[in-house]
Amino acid sequence: MNKLLPDVADNNYLGSKVAVIGLYPILLLYFFRSIVHFTFDDAGLVVIGNIIELPMIDNIDPNNLVYMFASLWGASQLLISILFVVIFFKYRSLLSILWLIVILDILLRWTTGTLHPLTPEYYISIPPGKAGNLPMFLYALVMFYFSMKRTT
User: Fold this and answer.
1) pTM score, two decimals?
2) Integer distance in angstroms from the first to the last C-alpha of the chain?
3) Does the residue 2 lie in any domain?
4) What is the pLDDT of residue 116?
5) Contact 146, 22 (CB under 8 A)
């Protein structure tokens, strides 16, 4: 447990270097998706996420509401990504907790998909985030293991 939540948060990381190197693609992915969701006109839902646009209802475009909430989600993702980078470069002893957060993030995505499932008629094709959840989950589990493995 001390490996997961050390008494002192510093840059003295004692786990495997594999878990350090393995976090670089996750950081890039987190920054990419957060910037897309935050800045794209459609919050990346149509152009990348393959979600169909909803029809107008009484001259009101429901997509504007959906895109606004997805953009807010992107802003939250961006803040989390910045926090990840700060921890990664300044408090590397907390690397294992970063991997645990990645695992929990994926589990919560699956939970959301179960609580609020989108059936195939909402998609043009399977969104990359949905298709990539299982491989990313397995990758994060392996990296979490390596981050917890003490090397000296």
Assistant:
1) 0.90
2) 18
3) no
4) 94
5) yes
